[in-house]
Amino acid sequence: MWVASYLLWFIGAVLLQMTVWPTLFQSLRPDLVTVITVAVALHKGPGKGAAAGAMGGVVSDLFTGYFLGMGAITNALVGFAAGWLGPKLFKENFLVPVAIAAAATLLQQSLYWLLLLAFGRNLPLLFALEKVIGPTVIVNGLLAFPVFVLAQKLEAFVSELSS
């Protein structure tokens, strides 16, 4: 049941960040898939975090039309890392999901940039840091706590439905 609920959440998040968000905030683009992946990983652990990251990455890749599989790979790695790190930290403190989401976004965006370079796309590092990676890390950090709370509520709702 969690797979279907998170799949719907990823689809909604990708549609939101592609349609509504750009009309409200032109220059600041979130990566909601990464934030949701971190929330799942902190709640469910590294295995389901990696699975959620792969699922969200595929959804994002399919909707955006960018390099199919790169989002899946980078988000799966981030989901695993956040899920592995989560139990070692006090995740009830609201700063923990924010810090992990920001660090995970930095990792995901950096890995994606490296894969772009590996596939021959020349995106200068300073441009990527200033125009893509930096703003995305900031926006994702700001969105992390509300998404984390929504993930807790979704978990409770799915648990209630399945029992």
Structural class: mainly alpha
Distinct helical segment count: 6
Percentage of β-strand residues: under 5%
Distance, first to last CA: 11 Å
Helix and strand element order: HHHHHH
Helix content: over 70%
Largest sheet: none
**Rg for CA atoms:** 15 Å
Q: What is the number of strand segments?
A: 0
Low-confidence stretches: none
User: Which term fits the overall shape?
Assistant: globular
**Overall pLDDT level:** 90
Q: How would the blueprint of this fold be written?
A:
Blueprint: H1 2-24, H2 32-44, H3 46-64, H4 70-85, H5 95-118, H6 125-162
Model description:
The protein is an all-alpha fold and 163 residues long. 82% of the residues lie in helices and 0% in strands. Helix 1 (2-24) crosses helix 3 (46-64). The longest helix has 38 residues, at 125-162. The termini are close together. The mean pLDDT is 90.
List descriptors.
163 residues, mainly alpha, single chain
Quick summary:
This protein is mainly alpha-helical. It has helices spanning 2-24, 32-44, 46-64, 70-85, 95-118, 125-162.
